[in-house]
Amino acid sequence: MFKHARSAIVTGFMLSAFAAVASAQSLTVVSFGGDSKAAMEKAYFQPYEKETGTRINAVDWNGEMGKIKSMIDTNSVQWDVVEVEAPELERGCSEGLFEEIDYSKVLPESAFIEHAAQECGVGTFIWSVALAYNKDKLKEGPSSWADFWDINKYPGKRALRKGAKYTLEIALMADGVSPKDVYTVLATPEGVDRAFKKLDELKPHIQWWESGSQPGQYLVAGDVVMSSAYNGRIAQAIKQDKRPLDIVWNQSLYALDYWAIPKGAPNIERSLDFIKFASQPKNLITYSSNIPYGPPTHEAINALPDDIGKDLPSSKQNIENAIALDVNFWTDYGDALEQRYNAWVAQ
């Protein structure tokens, strides 16, 4: 009798201990911090904790891939889900630093827009490089990159990012290449020559920018009449700083950040469950309501309220004639094109 009672006590203790462990479940989710992390807290972290009882340990990083490699090499992976940019995702996947995504435990790949569902990463938000201008300086705003090149109609300096990426794509679109054909053309020697020839036309009128804050500053100061710019920076200047700026979404270039799982992460199943939760339309829309980055799924894009969607790179009307940054292209050709670009700038 005592033996049975003792067995019951032990069994009860074990069940209590298991429940305590289960309730103490946690995930370490790593992001780039700042306003985006604050939006993630509202859209993903807090709701996931409430729904599942899993505690989210939110950690910031700056994209240092060496940290992940070091964890893997020393068999001490402590991070579960990491926000990574497209080039790091591509490189990390090829080097075996990330787990392959089992989409049957997230969403069907067809649920995502182009380039959002990658072998080792699930798109979490879309940002873009678009044409921006100061409405107080131009009575009639530009509508395309061809207008950006039109010095007669829009006299004055223009600003472009100091680098081959985005700049060469923009030059080809200004020269009449359709967004869907840009990378096909740019992958040929003739296409590269065509892009640089187009840049030659505008070179005397270009003021280069290197940090994301500069286009808005140049536009407000009247240093330039228009600029390529990161959409989030311009949207922030419009909404928070009440600047008279506007964005032209036609022929914009968009890229994604992704959720990835480091190789050997301790909670792969739970990590996939978190990514699935963060990919639901309701949660994606909450995120986009708090920061002007777009959701990566068709359903969320279609469900966006008009007052939010009009300011996002992924909304149906804004993405219609946009181009997705081709990470594979820049992995293959980036070094050579940047070298040629740097030599061209120095001439």
Please provide a brief summary of the model:
With 347 residues, the chain is an alpha/beta fold. It has helices spanning 2-23, 34-52, 65-73, 86-94, 145-148, 167-174, 182-186, 189-202, 214-221, 231-239, 268-278, 281-290, 298-303, 306-309, 316-319, 327-346; strands at residues 26-31, 55-60, 81-85, 122-134, 158-161, 206-209, 226-230, 245-260, 323-324. This is ABC transporter substrate-binding protein.
Percent helix range: 40-55%
- Based on secondary structure, the structural category is alpha/beta
User: How large is the share of residues in beta strands?
Assistant: 15-25%
Largest sheet: 9 strands, mixed
Give the overall average pLDDT: 90
Low-confidence stretches: 1-23
Pfam family, one: SBP_bac_8
InterPro entries: SBP
Keywords: Signal
Protein name: ABC transporter substrate-binding protein
Polypeptide structure, described:
By secondary structure, this protein is an alpha/beta fold. Helix content is 47%, strand content 18%. It contains 16 helices and 9 strands. It has helices at residues 2-23, 34-52, 65-73, 86-94, 145-148, 167-174, 182-186, 189-202, 214-221, 231-239, 268-278, 281-290, 298-303, 306-309, 316-319, 327-346; strands at residues 26-31, 55-60, 81-85, 122-134, 158-161, 206-209, 226-230, 245-260, 323-324. Strands 1, 2, 3, 4, 5, 6, 7, 8 and 9 form a 9-stranded mixed β-sheet that branches. Strand 1 (26-31), helix 2 (34-52) and strand 2 (55-60) form a beta-alpha-beta unit. Helix 4 (86-94) packs across helix 16 and helix 6 crosses helix 8 (189-202). It is globular. The N and C termini lie far apart (94 Å).
